[in-house]
Write a structure and sequence with these properties.
This protein is 63% helix and 4% strand. It is mainly alpha-helical. The longest helix has 31 residues.
Length: 312
């Protein structure tokens, strides 16, 4: 009986020994070659209330890291009432370069999980700096088109059409990489070249996405009675044999979305989407000018009249 009792306790004693070692050693799970034992140890870590960052630091060293992290996510979904997206994402992002370089959990897998838990907009809200840092593994791992579509839709649905238009213009040029510092010497032309340099930017929307964004905003504003439907209007641009080089930003934007040569002349016809760009740009320019005019009129109304000054 004693012999049987002793034999039955050995597996439990072994698990306890490995569990204690893995608890106190970050890379302890690297020594566990049995996937079932690794999963059992993970369950103990969660039940014992180990912090997310500490659990992830141990998982990343396991040869079964992907499987363990999938199971950890399940624990949180089942038991932590939706806490897992931000808590586990923060834990993953807290891993240092050594963990990523030597561990068995890949950033490709991490991005898959993050995208499953969080929308592209949420990822930018929480990890914006990392997504723009070309030295970080998360850099350019989020689909740019998905981000811009979600962002523009958010403002369009909330009828903030001006902000939606601003985001569309941003989408065309992309976002500035976080480690690119603009010149501060006061040279406006140099600063403009810096911001337009594609090497300094990331997450540019594709042409297909840009055309979709323009069409969606235009349709929403037309349905809301904010802009007339003149998208079928022919809009012609003078140019040479090649596509015209537009001097104005809005016209350049319109040309970039397609134009075709008009018969045998050096004249180009903008695409319907290009026409929408000009109509939208004109609408928001008129709004801006109207706001400036109202502001000036308000300032003049507050200014003292000449007759008032004469009475002093």
């Amino acid at each position: 009986m004693d012999s049987e009792h002793s034999d039955s306790e050995r597996p439990a004693e072994k698990i306890k020994s490995v569990r204690d070692f893995s608890r106190h050693s970050i890379d302890g799970l690297a020594q566990v070659q049995d996937p079932n034992l690794a999963l059992e140890l993970l369950g103990h870590f969660v039940d014992d209330g180990m912090a997310e960052a500490e659990v992830v630091q141990r998982i990343v060293w396991s040869p079964y890291a992907d499987q363990l992290f999938e199971k950890l996510a399940e624990y949180y979904q089942e038991e932590q009432c939706g806490k897992q997206p931000l808590a586990l994402a923060d834990a993953l992002m807290s891993l240092d370069e050594k963990d990523w370089a030597c561990g068995n959990l890949t950033m490709r897998k991490v991005v898959t999980w993050l995208v499953r838990w969080m929308s592209a907009r949420e990822l930018f809200r929480v990890f914006g700096e990392l997504l723009l840092d070309e030295d970080h593994p998360l850099f350019e791992q989020v689909n740019a088109d998905e981000y811009w579509i979600a962002t523009v839709q958010h403002f369009t649905i909330n009828r903030d059409y001006r902000r939606a238009w601003e985001e569309i213009r941003k989408a065309r040029g992309g976002l500035l990489k976080i480690n690119r510092i603009p010149p501060t010497d006061g040279d406006i032309e140099r600063l403009r070249r810096f911001h337009r340099d594609p090497d300094n930017r990331c997450y540019r929307a594709s042409k297909k996405c840009m055309m979709s964004l323009v069409n969606q905003l235009f349709d929403a504003m037309h349905e809301a009675g904010k802009i007339p439907d003149r998208r079928a209007t022919d809009c012609l641009v003078c140019g040479g044999r090649d596509a015209p080089q537009a001097p104005l930003p809005s016209l350049e934007f319109a040309v970039s979305l397609g134009c075709e040569k008009y018969e045998d002349r050096d004249v180009w016809r903008l695409s319907p989407t290009g026409v929408m760009v000009l109509l939208l740009a004109r609408h928001f320019c008129d709004q801006k000018n109207a706001r400036k005019r109202r502001s000036r009129e308000g300032e003049l109304a507050k200014a003292p009249k000449l007759c008032d000054l004469a009475k002093r």
